[in-house]
Known about the structure:
88% of the residues lie in helices and 0% in strands. With 233 residues, it is mainly α. Residues 87, 90, 98, 101, 132, 136 line the site of zinc ion.
Amino acid sequence: MARHRQLAESHFVNRIGWLRAAVLGANDGILSTASLIVGVAAASTTQNAVLIAGVAGLVAGAMSMAAGEYVSVSSQSDSENADLARERKELSESPEFELDELAEIYVKRGVDRDLARQVAQQLTAKDALSAHAHDELGISEITTARPVQAALTSAVSFSVGAAMPLLMVVVSPAGVLVPIVSAASLGFLAVLGAIGAKVGGASVLRGTVRVIFWGALAMAFTAGIGKLLGTAV
Ligand SMILES: [Zn+2]
């Protein structure tokens, strides 16, 4: 039963990590595209130009999210693999030293010396590398990096987020484009902020207010810049 509970918990953690990345990606997509649209629209160009800028923003953002995520997760994965290779070598060259090292880790965590030694011996007998990976390097199955999956998740969730303000450009009348895109995007951000807070087990109200505050600030800032440049040209 204890084993069953542990499995259920690790699935839960996994799901949170994945959902959290997707929510963050969508959040980025909404905010950066809405800001871009509001900035370009404030410079009083045509609806078509605003739409083109928005689509370009979606593609550029999705690609840059994917590339950034791929690079960061791959380098994490590279360093994990290098650590594992070094550990494997040490285990085959000096198994006694490695056993002491593992036992010492459990002693530091509060286990009696004799028991720690016993635990280390049994774990080493079962799968020495996995025991060292887990307790010495902090690499567990959950944190095992998957760069392609991470890149795809970010790109797709960013695109879905970015599509929302773009849709607003298409459906809103030209004269009220800025207020409609801003208000709708803040609404989308609020919903996502609430979902993100709920998923992460945090306060829904605080999560929502925070995301609305930063969203409004970003849009007001780019609108101001757009207006400034629009009148200067
Ligand atoms: Zn070791």
